[in-house]
Specification:
The structure holds two protein chains of two kinds.
Chain A lengths: L19 H7 L1 H30 L17 H7 L2 H32 L6 H8 L1 H4 L2 H11 L6 H8 L13 H29 L3 H9 L4 H29 L3 H6 L11 H11 L3 H27 L11
Chain B lengths: L3 E10 L2 E11 L4 E5 L6 H9 L6 E6 L2 E2 L10 E4 L11 H11 L4 H15 L14 H14 L4 E5 L7 H18 L2 E6 L2 H7 L2 E6 L2 E6 L1 H6 L4 H6 L6 E8 L6 E3 L5 E3 L11 E6 L4 E17 L4 E7 L2 E7 L10 E6 L5 E4 L7
Parallel strand pairs in B: 3-8, 3-9, 6-7, 7-8
Antiparallel strand pairs in B: 1-2, 1-4, 4-5, 9-10, 11-12, 11-14, 12-13, 14-19, 15-16, 15-18, 16-17
Classes of the chains: A mainly alpha, B alpha+beta.
Chain lengths: 320, 354
């Protein structure tokens, strides 16, 4: 092994020749910064800047076309505090996220366990599971829109033909049905991501662990409970964090299906923010709604972060 | 403790038979080593014994009970895996106590048994560590500890030392053997390493291509191999084989090679005169002589305790080992004489011992 010099040799040892530019060019620490700069520039331009602009806007009364707007402090938030539609959208978002994520996790885990078994056409079935994930959201939303149509719904039609109901279900017109319908569509779309990621996690578990557990006397439930589940927790934490973040910030599906209706029953914070900020033009208020999502998202990340921190066995440190 | 009877066991994967009727009787308390090149079916046989593979036909009994249809956990066996299969999310103590916990044992009972096993294997200090924090040898010991804690009727080892470095392997070999002498639990041990087999076994079962070539004590196999495969497999460096024709016409029989060298044989049936044979001689059964086979020294490898010599007879290389320090150089012409009493004769076509 060769030792790596802490700074590149500079040929400019002569008196007065080692300029500041030369040092910036060759010093290892600076070099690292040069290499990171392109990526950092992208992140700053397309992520950090819009984020801070959004937060800043939430403290102004900016409107579309005005350019700028005045600093109004917490006024937007004070308005929102007394805005029942905003609180309804918070409730909707939490309901949507919690119910959809929980079901996505359960169904995704079940599918992953199923797909991890030996079966004919395994590769084909695994690929097929990904289809809902590949189809563009808006396309699948339009398909669901037809499925949920008040007159032509295939579900209503089938149930009527089977004699289970006698009139069409108003899937997207009734608040409870509408909430259930958008949650179902979100689950349909989100399950493949959870299932395939958990399947990848399952495949990292050595089969000999299951064999050892079998010989140790574990039933199949005990093998899941004591081997599969604990070994999968790190991946569950990651995949569920992502799933929660995606669900919480969902926009496309709702917008294509219900636009937040009926009577705001399916308005999420993201759709409300868009409606207030862009459609109504009140940028400040829209930005305040969007900014209000940040604490929830931070909380979701914090939970999974601390969840992962506890797992000592993953870290290979030798604490003699 | 229990005896194990493997009777005419066959195993097919799909339509492909990998074990062709294997029978191995294993006495109570014995240390039996299944050895053979990879793909010989030894691991499959062990996994069938453990209940991890179905038995296609034949029977396996542990004690007086046929276990063909008995669930692995009810067979009262413990297995040590090649990669140890330690549960990475459990501490050493939890790993060792897992089977007892599943059985619903009291916490105090688990602690007692785990501590006793930890004392046997010198693992006390490591009980709170996770597998990641252990060295290879320590993991190996934990895997054995997990087996000991269960106090099973039979221990199964599936190539347990092949992930260790050479020095540790020798140390663990002795440790496993000592453990067996102490616990006297019937043990079935799979390896591809004939030295492990020779040093540890009460009984060696040599397998090849799904059949048992020979079984017996290590020295039986070494001194009286049934066939050329066993002769070549057991012993290191391997036995030398020379092709030739058996000559028996009164007096001492000999084997004549194509280039005219005469290899002495202690005895051979008169009827086999003129038979094409393979002459087998172990490296340590060759000695320098004035009237032996002419050979040219190719390589000299001194190891200190002995000197290994590669010599060329005609076009064939043979290996000889000498304990005395003789000065020979590559290129030297020497005469090597096989010890007639230690020579082995095999049928050239079937490989069977004559």
């Amino acid at each position: 092994m060769t030792t790596i010099p802490t700074s590149l040799p500079t040929p400019t040892r002569h008196f007065g020749k080692s300029s500041a530019w030369d040092r910036l060019r060759t010093n290892r620490n600076w070099l690292a910064i040069w290499f990171m700069l392109p990526a950092a520039a992208f992140l700053i331009l397309f992520l950090a800047y819009p984020l801070f602009l959004g937060v800043w806007m939430s403290f102004t009364d900016d409107r579309i076309g005005r350019g700028g707007g005045n600093f109004v402090g917490l006024e937007n938030y004070e308005w929102l505090k007394d805005d029942s539609i905003f609180w309804l959208s918070v409730f909707n978002t939490l309901l949507y996220t919690i119910v959809a994520s929980a079901i996505k996790f359960a169904v995704g885990l079940y599918l992953a366990l199923l797909l991890n078994r030996h079966m004919p056409f395994k590769a084909l079935i695994r690929a097929a599971v990904l289809i809902p994930f590949i189809v563009p959201t808006v396309l699948s939303a339009i398909a669901f829109w037809w499925i949920y149509d008040s007159q032509f719904s295939i579900i209503s039609w089938s149930l009527i033909k089977m004699g289970l109901i006698d009139h069409n279900i108003n899937f997207l017109g009734d608040s409870s049905w509408a909430r259930g319908s958008v949650i179902f569509a979100n689950i349909w779309r989100g399950v493949p991501f959870v299932a395939i990621t958990l399947l990848a996690g399952l495949q990292t578990v050595s089969p000999s662990l299951y064999e050892a557990a079998t010989l140790d006397g574990a039933t199949s439930w005990q093998r899941f409970r004591f081997i599969t589940y604990p070994l999968l927790t790190p991946i569950i934490a990651v995949v569920m964090t992502f799933s929660v973040l995606f669900t919480f910030t969902d926009f496309q599906l709702i917008w294509a299906l219900t636009r937040g209706g009926p009577v705001n029953a399916t308005h999420l914070m993201a759709t409300l923010s868009y409606q207030r900020g862009i459609l109504s033009g009140r940028l400040g208020e829209g930005a305040a709604i969007a900014t209000a999502m940040i604490p929830f998202l931070m909380a979701a990340i914090a939970i999974s972060w601390f969840g992962m921190q506890r797992r000592k066995w993953q870290q290979g440190t030798d604490n003699d | 403790m229990a005896s194990v009877q493997i009777h005419d066991v066959r195993k097919s994967f799909g339509g492909f038979e990998v074990l062709h009727g294997v029978s191995v009787p294993i006495e109570d308390g014995a240390f039996v080593v299944l050895v053979g090149p990879s793909g010989c079916g030894k691991s499959t046989l062990l996994r069938m014994l453990a209940g991890l593979e179905k038995i296609t036909s034949g029977t396996i009994s542990i004690g007086d009970r046929v276990v063909n249809d008995v669930q692995p956990k009810e067979r009262d066996i413990a297995m040590v895996f090649q990669n140890y299969a330690l549960y990475p999310h459990m501490t050493v103590a939890q790993n060792m106590g897992f089977s007892l916990k599943l059985r619903g044992a009291e916490k105090s009972e688990i602690d007692t048994k785990v501590n006793r096993a930890a004392d046997i294997l010198d693992l006390r200090r490591l009980l709170d560590r996770f597998p990641r924090q252990l060295s290879g040898g320590q993991r190996q010991r934990v895997a054995m500890g997990r087996a000991i804690v269960r106090d099973p009727q039979v221990f199964l080892f599936d190539e347990p030392l092949s992930n260790l470095d050479a020095k540790l392997r020798v140390a663990m070999r002795a440790e496993i053997k000592e453990l067996h002498q102490r616990l006297k639990t019937t043990t079935v041990y799979v390896t591809h390493d004939q030295i492990e087999a020779m040093t540890m076994a009460d009984k060696i079962v040599v397998m090849q291509d799904g059949i048992v070539e020979q079984m017996g004590s290590p020295l039986e196999l070494y001194d009286h191999p049934d066939n050329k495969f066993v002769a070549g497999f057991i012993g290191s460096p391997a036995m030398n084989f020379l092709e030739g024709t058996l000559k028996v016409n009164g007096g001492q029989p000999w084997v004549e090679t194509a280039n005219g060298a005469r290899l002495p044989v202690a005895a051979a049936p008169a009827a086999s005169n003129g038979k094409a044979v393979t002459y087998g001689i172990r490296p340590e059964h060759l000695e320098f002589a004035d009237d032996g086979i002419e050979a040219e020294i190719v390589v000299v490898e001194p190891t200190g305790s002995e000197t290994q010599i590669v010599a060329r007879i005609g076009t064939q290389d043979i290996i000889a080992i000498f304990r005395d320090r003789r000065r020979v150089e590559p290129g030297d012409k020497v005469h090597l004489r096989p010890r007639a009493a230690s020579a082995h004769l095999f049928d050239k076509d079937t490989g069977k011992r004559i």
